[in-house]
Amino acid sequence: MIFGKICDILKNKRGSSFPLVVAITLALVIVFCGVSESIRLMIIAQGVRDAVQSAVISTINDNYGNVYHGVREGYSGAYQPSAADFQENLDYGDIYGRLDQLMGLRQENGYHVKYSGDGIEFRVSGLSVDLDNMPLAPANPDNSKGLLADAAIKLEVPVSFGGNSLPPMTINLRVQAKYMPIF
Description:
This protein is of the alpha+beta class. It has helices spanning 2-11, 18-62, 64-72, 95-103, and strands spanning 79-82, 85-88, 106-108, 111-116, 119-132, 147-157, 169-179.
């Protein structure tokens, strides 16, 4: 019923449909801008998550040298031989350094910031990495978790839709990486 009235107004040749056409066009432009902004935010979040995952995988791979002695004994934990026993030997690496290099970030006031021109594109902070080593000599190595890295980081992206009236998008990204000996 309402759709029929709108069609009648649009088909009217007296010019009374002009404000309605302008209002519909503006509404469509606003919807299109909102959708494109949400797509931009998703692309940035996905790119940062992929970069953090790459940095965490590099950290796990850096532990390869520590894992080698355990692999020789049939396990994939990060242990070093010490006298007649093994000691846990984990390397947390430099994940922020890798992120800075991968994404071209700058350190400012406790944040790692990516600039787009003069404005901030996004910033990351609060990196936490938890390395979970495989137990030495587990009863069944197939059921254990292996050498697992669990990382979380806070991402803030300023929203460019609606001026400064909207708060920045703030999300916690979480990635995991696991070392698995293939041979």
